[in-house]
Amino acid sequence: ITESSQVPNFPEFVVVGLVNELQAAYYDSNTRRLVPKLDWMKKATEKYSAFWEIAAQVTMGNQQFFKANIEIMKKLFNQTEVCVHVNQCMTGCEWDDETDEVNVYWQYGYDGEDFISLDMKTETFIAPVPQAVPTKHKWDNDKAFIASQKYRYTTQCVNWLKKFVEFGRSSLMRKDLPSVSLLQKTPSSPLTCHATGFYPDRADLFWKKDEEELHEDVVRGEILPNHDGSFQMSVDLDLSGLKDEDWGRYSCVFHLAGGQEVSKRLDKRDIRTNWKTNDGGVNIGLIGGVLGGIAVLAVIGCIIGFFVYKKKHPEGKDPHQDH
Q1: What is the CATH number of the domain that holds 268?
Q2: Are 7 and 149 contained in the same domain?
Q3: pLDDT tens profile 75-121
Q4: pLDDT digits (tens, 9 = 90+) for 150-202
Q5: Ranges for the Ig-like domain (predicted)?
Q6: C-alpha distances in Å from residue 35, one per residue of 19, 26, 195, 233
């Protein structure tokens, strides 16, 4: 959930619901509509229409809560100037279908920094900044509020997650291997092994020499989402000092959870680059676009959250609006 002020050309209030890192639902203050974003989620909302109606009502109620809350935060931080401010909440649950283990996260952030979070195991709030200490003391003493949040995310959230996983099983349980490319901007740049189009995101990408995985001279990127629901990632290898006769000993390996792999041996003829070589390198002018796309996705990935279910408080107000 993201509430912002003074951000041009961006909705003041945005809610994004994720299932297995896929955007399943979306709401913003411009459209004022909670919209399913995946085909199977659209079918699920028809089957669980009561859930969807409650979720839509609570989302609109939260819009008013967050709008008031950002003003409270500005007072707490003694901010009187007119400028950009962002208040975010990220909550959700994770369920391991093999061990049945459940993990829950519940955290607030303000202007890009942690403000307060709830430790479900100790049932206490954590205040990383002095401005959050009064809120921590107030909420720590509200045992009913803590109990309701614990039940909501350790029980209700998990129950709905299981239903969604079952409903979207054919999509969520699929395993797609990626296409793997070797990319290099300039002759002196690190060599990038880029894998895209894989699913799920439980995967690894690494360089190895002969049969040994490399840890030195390697920079690993994070896993990022593609627009079609698949994922991409990259890992860089420093080529300085690499002898020509050793190239064939190196390979990039993609490993998907479950054991499937894709391996690409290091070969100069396979490198896609913006510069023209005399030894077989391909000049296609793609590298800036591919890596630029990764940077854009990293920005988009900052605005994420997960909203599940919340009973509407009488008169549409949240009893904990006042910090």
Answers
A1: 2.60.40.10
A2: yes
A3: 999 998 888 999 999 999 999 988 999 999 999 999 999 999 999 99
A4: 999 999 999 999 999 899 998 888 899 999 999 999 888 999 999 999 999 99
A5: 178-263
A6: 14, 5, 30, 28
Whether 31 and 127 map to the same domain: the answer is yes
What's the CA gap between 34 and 45, in Å, rounded? 11
| Domain with 143 in it | 2-171+302-316
